[in-house]
Hints:
It contains nine helices and six strands; from the N terminus they run H-H-H-H-H-H-E-E-E-E-H-E-E-H-H. Strand 4 (206-213), helix 7 (220-231) and strand 5 form a beta-alpha-beta unit. Strands 3-4-5-6 form a four-stranded mixed beta sheet, sandwiched between helices. It has two domains: 9-128, no CATH class; 164-300, Trna Endonuclease, Chain: A, domain 1 (3-Layer(aba) Sandwich). With 301 residues, it is an alpha/beta fold. It has helices at 9-21, 26-36, 52-65, 67-82, 98-159, 164-181, 220-231, 264-271, 277-291; strands at 190-192, 195-197, 199-203, 206-213, 238-243, 259-263.
Amino acid sequence: MTNSKKISPQAILALKEALSVITWKKDDLKDFLKYSMDNRAILGTINWDVTKRESVKELVERMTGRPDLYQEDLMNLLLSVTDLTDFPQLDYWDEDGTKKQRAAQAVDNLRKHTKGYIEITKEQERARKRREGIELKIAKNKSLESELLELRKLFNKLATNNNFQQRGFEFEKFLNDLFLLYELDPKSSFKNHGEQIDGVITFDGTDYLIEAKWKQQVTRADLAAFTFKVENKLKIAMGLLISVDGLTPQAISPDFKSIIIMDGLDLIAVLDGRISLTDLFYKKRRKANETGKIYVPFNEL
């Protein structure tokens, strides 16, 4: 960490005083220091057999003498001490409250001498975190783009597979990878009381049973059968039917209220990066809630 404002001599003196009085026992002080610093090895080289004040003096002076090694830990100590508002380690020995009062005054004095420095440093830390957050988003987006590209290649390869049984199996694996990419906690296909379930995902606190079809357009009978599966499960469960080839014109009925539908164009829009899977899913669900339409293609949302 690089700071544009140097720690003043008054702040160093105030730090020594505060460290000397915020605890009563040396073991409590050593614990406080250990949890406040990253470079803790120096604590093992300090003479703790002398008074607490002398040990603190040795520690702080050695740290200030080597800013190349301990500048960040000095900052950590300043932040840790100035953040103190209570002193529970003094409770047992502070019958009249004077020890806590002295500790509070020492910490307050340290705050006065480090206010500008700490504000600069905290702003630098916030800026660093913002930069890291942006860099993480960029890296995540690049990774997402790369993985979507691989999935698009796989989808195109599946489209040329005329072995429908094999393509159906590979399509389930493809969807599982896509759901994993968007952190939808997918579960693999299973049978429940003789019914085949192609998978389950969790979105926005709700479980969705998956039905995946890539052979022909889905008919009204297909929708009725899938709706029956969904409505026989827990009340909070819904259904997501994914039909690459879409639906027949006669398939949609107002009776089907517990499912939403995606088609091949929806999947391609996601794979091309025109919309995220979760955003598409959210918009389809909202459209179904608002209009009762369970099948609204991407280009009509």
